[in-house]
Amino acid sequence: MLRNIAIIAHVDHGKTTLVDQMLRQAGTFRENQQVAERVMDSNPLERERGITILSKNASIRWGDHKINIVDTPGHADFGGEVERILRMVDGVLLLVDAFEGPMPQTRFVTRKALALGLRPVVVINKVDRSDADPLRVHDEVLELFMELEASDEQLDAPFVYASARDGWAVHELDDERENLHPLLDTILDAVPAPPSDEDGPFQLLVSTIDHSPYLGRLAIGRIERGEVRVGDPIVLLDPITDALPEEAGSSTGPVSGEPSTAGPEAGEAGREEPARKAAPDGRSGRVAKLYTFEGLERVEAPVARAGEIVALAGLEGVEIGSTIADPEHPEPLRGIAVEEPTVSVDFMVNTSPFAGRDGKYVTSRQLRERLFRELERNVALRVEDTDSPDTFTVSGRGELHLGILMETMRREG
């Protein structure tokens, strides 16, 4: 049985530390294996700044179950990562500091998770702090749920008290503090299994993109319906102008009837991206490679079925928000909605006396190619040409969002 969960919280409330401990206690690492702290923060900038910038996929085995875990950023500037990852999961671990309580980013992401109908499991972390007040924070989380108009099921979310740093969780504060087993058991009990329509035609929403030097683009997402095998024919579905109607009680759904504006949840989740339909040129291909996630690794698989999070190679031009489907049933899924950018900055080529002596991006063409390549996986970013051929306007969710892009490009040369 499968469970797909995302961990969401305000920055520095302990998400990555908790995932590290879950991986350790579920046996992902050998007892004698040397493992770096914050193993999910693999990007050098993440380790330096102590924050999560890019979402990560991992999985653990707990009993007879496989739990796919997505560790997501906790800073508002990287909310675009969070928004698209929520489309892959059926529940969330809402991690809250036992002293600070729900913070602005907690509210921001929780609103989106509740609007999508995801089942929360609340983890009040750092209860071993000297200034912790977990009972007050418990009430604050319930008040937040009520303000955000959570359903009765969501209001009945289980609460777990934990210290991610020390690797334990309990149902009640006076329970014996041994390990994270109570949390792992709660995930299995509270988070529903993903949709399991294995008999329908294949359908996958691309939630993130990765790159392989040998295979090109890898489309990562959850299989919404059917199954897929290596060698199967597939088709890529492209944008149409109107947004798809949202199916009641579902975050995704195929086209049925004429397109119309989305329901009230679209306003909660941000601007609706274009829906998808089959490309006029019939962009199609076959599954060249298929991967599932085991621990921190991608593992080749011959077949994957509905509910599984997979990485798939075999199609050119795949973009985040695309649908990959059975060519006999090219039914698109609702596009991924992301909040609009709030800050803009102009990028231009170096015109100083030292221009062209160092670095990769020394011409306007190279700079433009690099910026537009960033759009392939950074869905919250916007890049526009200007009247000047050597200047490009880049818009993002905040100063940190754009600052990380600048520093990444600087380190690339």
Describe the structure.
With about 425 residues, the chain is an alpha+beta fold. It folds into three domains: about 1-190, 3-Layer(aba) Sandwich (Rossmann fold); about 205-325, Translation factors (Elongation Factor Tu (Ef-tu), domain 3, Beta Barrel), CATH 2.40.30; about 345-410, Elongation Factor G (Translational Gtpase), domain 3 (Alpha-Beta Plaits), CATH 3.30.70. The chain is about 25% helix and about 30% strand. The chain has ten helices and 21 strands. The chain has helices at about 15-25, 45-50, 80-85, 105-115, 135-145, 150-155, 180-190, 265-270, 365-375, 400-410; strands at about 1-10, 55-60, 65-70, 90-95, 120-125, 160-165, 170, 205-210, 215-225, 225-230, 235-240, 275-280, 285, 290-295, 295-300, 305, 310-315, 325, 345-350, 380-385, 390-395. β4 (about 90-95), α4 (about 105-115) and β5 (about 120-125) form a beta-alpha-beta unit. The chain starts with a strand and ends with a helix.
